[in-house]
Specification:
mainly alpha
Length: 205
């Protein structure tokens, strides 16, 4: 799998630097919407990698290499998980630094680690939807997949903003249960998504 991820790095390295710059800027801006979007945005990175692969017919070539179907499919999820983790870590560090500095309160979004975790879960859920759809319909034949994922990305950020506002009025225990529920849902969705992706990938032989 490391070799597959290295291949994605060589293919996407120009876009990766742009992505890192965007995430860094969004992480530093005192805006909950941009901070949360910086985390969730990572779910869109595998779409770009898979689009390149399908244009170059990499999937056909990969079947001649000593990689199992499971390894190829999991490498797509691993790329998404890495992207989401980079976004979450960047936002957490940026906001943590801003909070520690003697700056006016308005220069910090006051984004707690719990909401970074919630954004990470939402990003994983988008990834769980994204990869099976692309494997089932392809990036060229189903451009609506990209439109759908983009729409859901921004919609999810709006929902997370609502969660942040609600957290100001609910008990910490209720918030903890909500985050725990999101974690359980993410784990179940990821397991189902991987099985579907394997099924669709094998059907495209």
């Amino acid at each position: 799998m490391k070799a597959l991820l290295l291949k994605d790095w060589y293919v996407l390295r120009k876009q990766v630097w742009s992505y890192l710059l965007i995430v860094l800027v969004w992480g530093l801006i005192p805006s909950l919407t941009l901070n949360l979007l910086a985390v969730v945005y990572g779910a869109m990175i595998p779409y770009t990698a898979m689009a390149y692969d399908q244009r170059s017919r990499w999937d056909r070539f990969a079947r001649m290499l000593p990689y199992s179907d499971r390894t190829v499919v999991l490498s797509r999820y691993a790329l998404g998980w890495i992207s989401l983790s980079v976004g979450a870590a960047t936002v957490a560090i940026c906001q943590g630094v801003l909070t520690c500095l003697p700056l006016p309160a308005k220069l910090s979004a006051n984004l707690s680690p719990g909401f970074v975790f919630a954004a990470l879960c939402v990003g994983c859920l988008l990834l769980d939807l994204n990869i099976p759809l692309i494997l089932r319909y392809g990036t060229e034949k189903a451009r609506w997949v990209a439109i759908l994922i983009t729409f859901l990305t921004f919609a999810s950020v709006g929902a997370l903003n609502g969660l942040v506002n609600d957290a100001k009025t609910v008990a910490a225990a209720v918030l903890s249960l909500t985050l725990a529920g999101m974690l359980v849902l993410t784990i179940i969705a990821t397991a189902v998504s991987i099985l579907l992706s394997l099924k669709f990938y094998r059907e495209n032989r």
